[in-house]
Amino acid sequence: MLKVGVLGAGHLGKIHLRLLNQSAKYELIGFYDPDEINAKKVADEFGYTSYENINALIDAVDVIDIVTPTLSHYNCAKKAIEKGKHIFIEKPITNTLEEAEELIELESKFKVKGQVGHVERFNPAFIAVNDSIQNPMFIETHRLAEFNPRGTDVPVVLDLMIHDIDAILSVVHSEVKLINASGVSVISKSPDIANARIEFENGCVANLTASRISLKNMRKSRFFQKDAYISVDFLEKKVEVVKMKDAPEVLGDFDMILQNAEGIKKQIYFENPEVEANNAILDELETFADAINNNTTPIVSLNQGTAALRVALQIIEAFEN
């Protein structure tokens, strides 16, 4: 079992602590939170060991799980890596691109592994259709959330949209060609609503919308590719796959047929991939343990987390142009 420590015992940090404590792949050693009142409360309520300083916790473990505010990600990760510890780091990987790129260099130098917490990669609905998404040419995403003061210290792009950016980059195997975007600040000092259009070198276009002041929650993505339409509901854990194939010579009574202007007939049919229930956060943490134990590349590497951050920052930059 890998000895693990958690940095940060806020809302998400407490979830990580609970899951690591129940995981068969980790031994939870303890946590560090600079808020002494909160640290004592969490230790008293759940029985986890609270460390008085960050270095003592890092020294006591094999893996550091960083669930702190984004501004502190880099410093926490740097300290852990330089002591030879593997790091799991919540998204976004860091506050700046330069910080993220330095962590990649340190990861290589100290021969450790790092994974970024892009949890939607482990969403059972996305997993169910991942193999079916082949060379999509148009993608549309909507990630809408009711207002929550937690997270408003960063633009909605880094808070919400980055989930969809990462998912898109994982299925579109092409370089970004052009980004156009607009963002509006309604309640926060940074944009609360944003829309971005990403054009890729291979011709794929992705249209992303994110809002944190909506009346209802929505997390949907739609992928359009040759002869197929794939819809993923990340919130409801549901998928819809509609495909087309050449129409048979003899049509059945219930066959759904489309005919274009040239007279070519296509048959529409539906696939129903099984969506297997899981705990996405536990899965991302445990697959990281597997990557460490088997010396394989983590599912969401520091390189991939950096790629998502790079596009997110380009979108934010496009707001001003």
TrEMBL record:
Looking up InterPro entries in the UniProt record yields: Gfo/Idh/MocA-like_OxRdtase_N, Gfo/Idh/MocA_Oxidoreductases, GFO_IDH_MocA-like_dom, NAD(P)-bd_dom_sf
Q: Name one Pfam family in it.
A: GFO_IDH_MocA
Domain GFO/IDH/MocA-like oxidoreductase stretches: 156-216
Q: Which parts of the sequence belong to the Gfo/Idh/MocA-like oxidoreductase N-terminal domain?
A: 2-118
Give the highest taxon in the source lineage: Bacteria
Tell me what this protein is called: Gfo/Idh/MocA family oxidoreductase
Organism, as annotated:
Croceitalea vernalis
